[in-house]
Amino acid sequence: MGLGSNIGDRFTNITDATQMLRKLADTLYSSKMYETSPYGFSKQPAFLNSVCKLSTQLTPWLFLHRVKEIEKNLQRHRVFANSPRTIDIDILMWGDIALESQLLTIPHPRFHERMFVLDPLFEISPTLVHPLLKLTVDEMRQGVQKKEPLEILPSCVCLF
């Protein structure tokens, strides 16, 4: 899961979202938080980004529904693509599953191009393999132009 916030108390937004995700999961590991420049629409505040790895008994579709509820509870408003947001939660991967529909694409179609996802993902799961590209997180990082995120908060936790 990828999490990002650039409106309000970014740290609290991501922490609250992580705690809500924990209620859907058997285990959850979370990376540190990284401050990054906005992606896409650049005239907006900097983001805090993190990733978490979890296991759940839910299907990807039901999990997506619950993620959208979490975003709504945290006042996420979809004004336009890449607009500022209190919270953004993306399903990056779901084991080895690959699927594509209008509502859900797994793996996330662009996460392998984004250092703000790859750096925190490398922190918690460097040998994770992209199910379509067959590359590890470290290998994907080597293929992305370095735009180094700034690590700011050591929030790596394991919540059971």
* Beta-strand content estimate: 15-25%
* Secondary structure tally: strands: 9
Number of domains: 1
The residue-averaged pLDDT reads 87
Query: CATH architecture, please?
Result: 2-Layer Sandwich
Classify the fold: give the CATH topology.
Alpha-Beta Plaits
First and last CA, distance: 17 Å
- Residue runs with pLDDT of under 50 for 5 or more positions: 156-160
The CATH superfamily name is: 7,8-Dihydro-6-hydroxymethylpterin-pyrophosphokinase HPPK
Structural class: alpha+beta
Percent of residues in helices: 25-40%
Rg, Å, rounded: 15 Å
How does this structure look, described?
The chain is built from four helices and nine strands, in the order βαβββαβββααββ. It has 160 residues and is an alpha+beta fold. The chain has one domain: Alpha-Beta Plaits. The strands form two sheets. Strands 1, 2, 3, 4, 5, 8 and 9 form a seven-stranded antiparallel sheet that branches. The longest helix is centred in the middle third of the chain and has 14 residues, at 60-73. The protein is globular, with a radius of gyration of 15 Å.
TL;DR of this structure?
The chain is α+β, with helices and mostly antiparallel strands and 160 residues long. Helix content is 27%, strand content 22%.
